[in-house]
Design a protein that fits this description.
- The protein is an alpha/beta fold and 241 residues long.
- 32% of the residues lie in helices and 16% in strands.
- It has nine helices and eight strands.
- It has an eight-stranded parallel barrel, surrounded by four helices.
- Helix 7 links the parallel strand 6 and strand 7.
- The relative contact order is 0.16.
- The model has no long low-confidence stretch (mean pLDDT 96).
- Bound molecules: 2-phosphoglycolic acid.
- The site of 2-phosphoglycolic acid has 13 residues, from strand 8.
Amino acid sequence: MINLSQFSSFFVANWKLNGNLSFIKEYIHSLNQNSANANCIVICPPAIYLSNFKGNANNFYLGAQNISKFEKGAFTGEISAQSLHDFGVNFCIVGHSERRHYFNENDEEVKEKAFKLLENEIVPIICVGETLEQKQNNETIKVITNQILNGMPNQSNHKNTIIAYEPVWAIGSGLTPTIEEIDIVHKSIRNISKNINNYKIIYGGSVNSENSKDIINLSNVDGALIGGASLKIDDFNKIIA
Ligand code: PGA
């Protein structure tokens, strides 16, 4: 399993359902080669394209966007953690709000998926975050705490699991919490328990080349999960520079 403590910042490109062969070729060609060694760059394309990155992944790692909670068997259309491992995938996003929303993924499933990933030496990036309504009702910390306590397997620790704080209302909207709010939420996550205190915690939700520096510079933020801006190679290069 990859050693998370060797990195100070994580930049995870979540392509979602985007990209094609020519886009990938150009992307690999244009990706900034000079990002600091302490930066861990993770590219998460649609699973079908993972093979197109193989052999090129010398300055970045490969990540998947989702995984089956099942190991094997009659589960048409699913991809197992073991096949990702066979393929050399080091990271996998779990519990993204789009999966929770469109595919009814709940904390129990997030936990099962994260467990399967750990069994196969893949780092789960467990996403948590509040909706706008929950934020307005001052429930942010309560919601996130529950998602973490219910969605993180017992086998998780700071060396093998990353937490991503992604406010649902900030994803793809161009809106972000204030810098102070991000700091407070990340600090609150650290305060959930002694065990969680030293986890790598990254922020996601409308991160772009203009706001990334202020966010990353927060002492409680260990990187970013980037959707839209990760598809614009110039922007992504600026973010990881
Ligand atoms: P966004 O997406 O950067 O486009 O807001 C982030 C995410 O969904 O992980």
